[in-house]
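Course assignment 3, question 2. Fill in each field.
Student: A.L.
Task: Predict the tertiary structure for the chain below.
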Amino acid sequence: MTLHDEYGLTRVINGAGTFTPLGVSRSSPGVAQAVAAALQDFFVIDELQELASRRLAAYSGAEAGAVTHCVSAAITLAVAATMTGEDAQKVAALPDSAAMPNRVVLPAGHAVNYGHPLVQDIRLTGATPLLAGNDEGCTPQALEDALAEPGVACLLLVSSRLVRGAPLDLAQAVALAHRHGIPAVIDGAAQDMRVDALLATGADLVLASAHKYLAAPTAGLVFGRRALVAAVRAQEKGIGRAMKATKEAIVGVLKALEERSAGDPVAWQRRQDDKVAAFQRQAGELPGVRLRSVPDPAGMPFSRVALDVDPVAAGMDAAQLAQRLKSGEPSVRVMEHEAGAGRLMLELVPLDAGEIALIAERLRAVVSGAG
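Answer field:
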């Protein structure tokens, strides 16, 4: 009996990617066993964090690292760290930030909503977001003007498909911040395979998710300069108390990092390409639905399947197709963020061959009117 059966829960086949409302990802048996063992024992948490710091540094090339409760927590703690350093009195004072630099420059198109507004992560520290540019983009001059404002604690940038407007050169933005003596933080939540590239921009801190493609338990990962990472940890005696990592999360991260380091990235990417090709083959020709492979928009090393829906030929629009897939048994979930433009997306990374075949079968049945 599965947990779905035991608790009367909806069985889901997740083609929507590392989507928080669906549980994000699947951990490997090795990670699950390490987490289960951690839950049954005691640890000196500072020792675990120090070990995690060394492993995260070795993985990324950063000076140091830390584990937080999640990436949302990591954003708040990183901003707080740029405001307080390791000063215990300042740490204890937050979110009263009156005596500190308390403005965070954020390109307007980077003020994303990933389930809640990112600017709320900033405001939790007592800081105020200072948006540069607009939703069409942020020019170097607009960023320069914002960074020149008084009381700026840091520059916060986002690397995500959710970013709006013209692309921003992250390295150039970081260099502008440093010219003003201001640290730069990059939120790369779903970019754990690109942390080295994000650090190469010169960013002082880079944040990523442990529970997306690394498939660890829920946790945020902080990579960067040793002093700022220590200041992130210092927040555990302040507003970060509610955002601390658990023992099982840290152990799960350590095991997931071990498995990632022991793996073959080229073979992994080939397996993802094979999944996309297999799905396209199994789905076949569909009336009104064109299947094509598209690269990850943020540069992760895998492709997704785009389903371009012609509502006349298919007899339904993209949103209706997604709903019919969702309402079946098991419930098949897809990416719907482009449904208004007639497009659905499938991400197959965590799925096995049987699940991929089942999605193809369900898609054929729905489009043909039999499902």
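Instructor remarks: The first strand starts at residue 12 and ends at 15. The radius of gyration is 22 Å.
Grade: pending
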